[in-house]
Design a protein that fits this description.
Elements: E1 4-7, E2 12-22, E3 26-31, E4 36-41, H1 46-57, E5 77-80, E6 86-92, E7 97-99, H2 100-104, H3 106-111, H4 118-137, E8 150-153, E9 158-160, E10 168-169, E11 176-177, H5 203-219, E12 227-228, H6 237-243, E13 254-255, H7 268-283, H8 291-302, E14 305-307, E15 315-317, H9 324-332, H10 342-346, E16 435-440, E17 446-452, E18 455-459, E19 476-480, E20 483-486, H11 492-499, H12 519-533, E21 537-538, H13 542-550, E22 601-607, E23 633-636, E24 652-655, E25 664-665, E26 669-670
Parallel strand pairs: 22-25
Antiparallel strand pairs: 1-2, 1-5, 2-3, 3-4, 4-6, 5-6, 7-8, 8-9, 10-11, 12-13, 14-15, 16-17, 17-20, 18-19, 20-26, 21-26, 22-23, 23-24
Biased composition (Pro residues): 404-422
Protein name: Protein kinase domain-containing protein
GO molecular function, one term: protein kinase activity
Length: 675
């Protein structure tokens, strides 16, 4: 066979260099066109050629294009032989990823020495739902899903491959090019026993497939498996699906086994979606949750997944109230998410990996994708903090974006005008003008501080805030002594001047906030800064941070309640272009402090607590014991890759003290006498 073909889109010759895979349908080859593979069909019949031409012309919007990530290996260009006959197509090569098959089952994870945890799997599931939502927005249907055809990298970003099997339709003629194949275990009941090639499928069929994929991710196996109580041998999986029998169907023919993971460990809303998908959806397929419903619910559930505090790889839903994985290990002596005790973990430096991401903001700008190795140890503890809308980010080098024609977002109703920030009604806040002063650092670098008067404020969120998490409650009065706080987050120039190094991943501007720093790194900076200045510098306590952030307001943000104004005050996922920005470019709060929301998360002095019950009322750091270096720590403020909800004044985040991500920074506080 010929090894040279013409790329129709670029009118250039493409040479096949090394065979990568071979199936009954086609061969896949490496090529001399960097970053692209060629799929050469054994029999490129006319229907297939027409379908390819349509797919090249009509791509769906890629929800992760702004992250320079490929969410689906879509046909890029037709390939022709020297007689102008279509033989196949070029598609982007996906590197640094593993198949979902290896990632979501405990046995495969052990076999391939991959580590993950339940938090990361929530993020992956959410991102898959966002990708499938984008495909459905285009009017396309996957028609077939295999775990082998979904790849995931160590930033929680999935890629769907084998996209030329999708069902696509011509928006002008209405012609449908069907999906000709299906996979056992992922075919909905109404299509079992039917010749898939004869069916015009709808996204309702994909809803079932998506539910199965998400179940695999969160529970480590297929949903239609349990303890058979009927006569004879257990039914085949396809027959169980056809009858709607799974361990939580309520039918006594199939019940949970002693290894079946209960649904109630999930966030209640996520629990309800599975019941809708497999119970109600069995009789009424159109009632199955949509991809968007899965995406939104997984994001809400993800925000309530917390570390267990005993084993570093154990995360569980706050709503469940305890660590199911510790419980399960105690009962079955098999750990689905094996890890180390927290005491062991905190003494070991964490690997420096870019924080992950979340999807569905659709933006644009092409750029090649740098290859990445799959990190085995702590593969996935890279999630800085996502957000709804885009699981985010290769911050090793450059950020990505790749999609020529994203779909137009649906118009959103304009919210009512937001009130101006409400000054706190507490009479003890007698705010006058903050007192600025400047520290001189080595190399001619300066550090601007703002002295704040003592005062009292309401810390946390009221029950009336629909976005408030339980860890922001109960709202309570706190008295804060006078202190000074950085006018800006610590910059790369300041960190370099004090520490002699710059660990940041975004080093394009010395006035960008320093990031990729752990709590321990921030503590070391404060100690050295104290030596240089002769004053006492430390991290702000959580209470001091929120007091300074609010600047006398009681609204959700320090500028009011309207999240649509956030872009005037903060760099967040909606305007950051997936990177940090120089400090002080946005509007300050009422006390002249900049970047209190967005840009980078800011470490605080306190240990993490799940709510404010028993919290100090004097503004001091809430620590678990005198030596708090080994406990999980708090971060505040949101970052460049978070949604507005995470940039609220009361929002709280946590991480291990040795962890450093490309969206973790800090600002300093000073408590020396005379301020």
């Amino acid at each position: 066979m010929s090894l040279t073909y013409r790329c129709q889109l670029q009118n250039r010759l493409i040479t096949l260099t090394q065979e990568l895979a071979n199936s009954g349908e086609a061969k896949v080859w490496h090529t001399n066109f960097n970053g692209y593979l060629a799929k050469i069909y054994h029999n490129p019949h006319n229907e297939r050629v027409d379908k390819l031409q349509l797919m090249v012309r009509n791509r769906p919007g890629d929800p992760n294009a702004h992250l320079n990530h490929i969410s689906f290996a879509w046909p890029y260009s037709i390939l022709e032989d020297n007689q102008g006959k279509v033989v196949g197509f070029l598609m982007p090569e996906v590197v640094g990823s593993e198949t979902l098959l290896k990632l979501c089952t405990p046995i495969m994870r052990r076999k391939y020495k991959l580590e993950t945890n339940w938090y990361f799997l929530h993020v992956v599931a959410r991102n898959i739902a966002a990708i499938i939502e984008a495909i459905h927005l285009k009017g396309y249907v996957l028609g077939d899903i295999k775990l082998e055809n979904i790849l995931v990298n160590n930033r929680a970003l999935p890629t769907i491959i084998d996209t030329d099997s999708f069902q696509v339709s011509d928006p002008y003629s209405g012609k449908i090019y069907r999906c000709l194949v299906g996979s056992e275990g992922f075919t909905p009941a109404e299509l079992i026993g039917v010749n898939i090639a004869d069916v015009d499928q709808t996204e309702v069929h994909d809803r079932f497939r998506l539910g199965v994929v998400i179940y695999y991710l969160l529970f480590g196996g297929p949903p239609f498996r349990g303890l058979w109580q009927g006569g004879g041998d257990s039914l085949e999986q396809s027959e169980l699906i056809r009858r709607g029998l799974w361990p939580f169907s309520g039918d006594k023919l199939l019940v949970p086994s002693n290894t079946t993971i209960p649904l109630n460990i999930l966030h209640p809303d996520l629990h309800a979606l599975f019941l809708r998908c497999f119970n109600e959806g069995h009789k009424f397929p159109h009632r199955r949750p949509t991809a968007k419903e899965w995406c939104d619910t997984l994001e809400a559930a993800r925000q309530e997944v917390i570390p267990c505090g005993k084993v570093d790889n154990h995360y569980y839903s706050r709503r469940y109230g305890k660590c199911y994985w510790c419980e399960r290990f105690s009962d079955l002596n098999f750990d689905i998410f094996p890890g180390k005790s927290i005491a062991t973990v905190t003494s070991t430096p964490s690997p420096k990996v870019a924080p992950p991401p979340p999807p569905i903001s659709i933006k644009s700008s092409p750029s090649p994708i740098p290859p990445q190795r799959w990190s085995r140890r702590k593969v996935l503890i890279t999630f800085g903090l996502f957000t709804v809308g885009t699981v985010a980010s290769n911050i090793f080098a450059q950020l990505f974006r790749q999609n020529p024609t994203p779909p137009s977002p649906s118009p959103r109703p304009l919210p009512p005008p937001s009130p101006s920030p409400r000054p706190s009604s507490s009479a003890s806040i007698r705010f006058t003008k903050p007192t600025p002063f400047t520290e001189n650092l080595p190399n001619g670098v300066t550090l601007e501080m703002v002295g704040l008067l003592a005062g009292q404020f309401l810390m946390g969120s009221p029950d009336s805030d629909p976005d408030a998490a339980s860890d922001e409650k109960p709202q309570h009065q706190v008295k804060v002594n006078s202190f000074a706080i950085g006018k800006y987050p610590v910059t790369q120039a300041q960190y370099q001047a004090v520490m002699g190094t710059n660990p940041s991943l975004f080093q394009n501007n010395p006035q960008n906030p320093v990031e990729n720093v752990s709590w321990n790194d921030a503590q070391a900076f404060c100690r050295k800064l104290s030596q240089i200045t002769g004053k006492t510098y430390r991290l702000p306590t959580e209470a001091e941070w929120e007091y300074a952030c609010r600047g006398g307001t009681t609204t959700r943000f320090y500028f009011g309640d309207d999240a649509n104004q956030l872009g005037d005050y903060a760099w967040y996922d909606g305007n950051s272009q997936a990177k940090t920005h120089p400090v002080g470019q946005k509007k300050p709060n009422a006390w002249g402090l900049y970047d209190m929301s967005g840009n980078v998360w800011e470490w605080c002095e306190d240990d993490w607590h799940y709510n404010y019950i028993g919290a100090p009322k004097d503004g001091s750091a809430w620590t678990i014991n005198n030596d708090n270096r080994s406990h999980i720590k708090c971060l505040r403020g949101g970052s460049w890759f978070n949604l507005p909800i995470l940039c609220r004044s009361a929002y709280r985040n946590w991480r291990n003290p040795g962890v450093d991500y490309g969206n973790h920074g800090f600002r300093v506080a000073c408590v020396s006498p005379g301020l």
